[in-house]
Amino acid sequence: MSETKRIYLQPWPIRIWHWINASGIIILILSGAQIRFPETLSIFTSYKSAIEVHNTAGIIVSISFSFWFFYYKMVKNTLDKLYIPDEEDIKHGLVRQLLYYCFWYFLGRPSPYHATPDHKFNPMQKSAYLAVMFVLMPLVGLTGILLLNVTPLRVLILMWGGIKFIVALHFLLACSLLAFLCTHVYLATLGDYIKPMLIGWEEVEEHEDVEAAPEVVIPGYRPVRHYPEYERELLEQRHS
Amino acid sequence: MKPADLQKMSLLAKLALCAWALAGIIAQANAWGFSYGDQTGNNQACLSCHGKTGNVPKGTFIDPQRFTQTAHANLGCEACHATVPVNHPDGTKVPKADCRDCHSGISEEYAKGLHASKTNCNGCHNPHLVQNPKDVSGQEINMICSNCHNSLEMTAKHGEWLPQSELHLRMLPCITCHTGAKDYYISMYIVKSKGDSRFGKQEVAEYAELKAMADGRPIVSLIDTNRDNYVSLEELRVFNRTQKSLRLYGMMTPSTVSHKFEILDSRRNCSFCHTSGSGLMQTSFIAVPEENGTFLRVPVEKGAVLDALYAAPDFYMMGSTKNTRLNSIGLAVICCGLIMPVGHGFVRFLTRKNRKQKEHQS
């Protein structure tokens, strides 16, 4: 027996932040490409427009990033829990999720991880978001702020290794963000991830006899938290 | 002239010849007694008084060292001050030549520009100091402009439309944008941090410092290592890589300076400068300071010289100075991000039946 249950996964402030961030990053990538390759690209008509759009989008994304940090850290106080992988994630979760993406998914098996408001991300998501939100985004933002104020922040730029180094770092970080964006968008299509980010709610099937599931271990496919489908499989095997 | 020819001349012609000879004798006598210049650039008679600050009224002092570097010095003082009274200095004003007498073309050009109603030639150029633009640095050219145009006001005014206006005004001669020159070249100066501090302001390196660093050799040998009076792009790159305290700064300078000062809308188009490999970036010189305060221009290999300047740690010109190797690394990083969507997506497409079967079963 199973019934559909609605979970409020993405609160409205996070949904607004996410889409501002997403559109901002896309605009930054396009305008940044024109700034670097003005002889081949003219997406935002003039070079000056590209610079102005890039600067404005950069400021908006930086503010939006600060808001994200403030919301999760100060308001919800779930930043560490959501984004920092725990021991179980590192020991088993990462490998299990990787196996799922590389093998189980193609065999039609369900994901070993199911999102809840307190555990929104699977171990691979956690690791990737940890790198993106705690390393890439702050660094690309900081280098961008330095490049936006070359004269007033000249000493800081020299302390960081000079303008050429800052530009190279900013460019490579932006390329890494674009690489992440490609993977992020693709992985969003693997499960039901886009709808909750639009409306906030996720619909999940909940099984009544999950609690009665016997502790049977299948080699290479261990039970994990928030994985009702797995328990259902175990029950089916037991009954057959 | 033969005596027979003299006899044949009319009385009027004889009189004219006598007058001409007399005038020559008077002029020669005047030169012996009080020379206004000797057309050799020394002008010692005038400078013996006007070259010493205490001897002459303020405003008539002429710095002998700087004056001798000007083209005017070669003409001699009398070229402009021809009718100095014989009993000078007696308090009477010494007449000055009109710049238009020699520079009529420039004068006509200047009259069409924005400055014409504001000031005359002397407003910008002191005739006793004026030098050819190629003999001075871009920063020195800007110092002339800043005599009237307050730099803070100009930064604020340009900042209304120009991003990072302070940086632009510091790195470009004003005449690059405010005159309608057709051709430009990149003039590179050797700069050094003030006080040898890593964070010090970059200033054009002085002759004495560079001479000491060159260790007896010509200064240009710091860059032109094979001493062929021609700097290759590779020599530029090597200089940028090996020199720790010296840097090269590039300034886009008009090849022919126009005196028609104007506000040109075309210069508001950022890609006028910020495009790699544009025609404007192909010709360049290195301005090496000389002992007399001028600059020796050493030609640099044609090509997108700003690419070579990219090796200088403190020099970056958006859109123009790019490292192609870095572009390749960036592309490789982006391709890594496509491995998952492309590779996984392909296998996902091939195994779509597996998932459908499972969905039907459940």
Automatic annotation (TrEMBL), chain A:
Protein name: Cytochrome b/b6 domain-containing protein
Pfam families for the chain: Ni_hydr_CYTB (PF01292)
Protein topology in the membrane: Multi-pass membrane protein
Alphabetical list of SUPFAM superfamilies matching this protein: Transmembrane di-heme cytochromes
Organism: Geomonas propionica
InterPro entries, per the entry: Cyt_b561_bac/Ni-Hgenase (IPR011577), Di-haem_cyt_TM (IPR016174), Hydrogenase_cytochrome (IPR051542), Ni-dep_Hydgase_cyt-B (IPR000516)
Keywords: Cell membrane, Electron transport, Heme, Iron, Membrane, Metal-binding, Transmembrane, Transmembrane helix, Transport
Transmembrane segments: 12-33, 53-72, 128-150, 162-187
Sequence similarity: Belongs to the HupC/HyaC/HydC family.
The UniProt record lists the keyword Iron: yes
Lineage of producing organism: Bacteria, Pseudomonadati, Thermodesulfobacteriota, Desulfuromonadia, Geobacterales
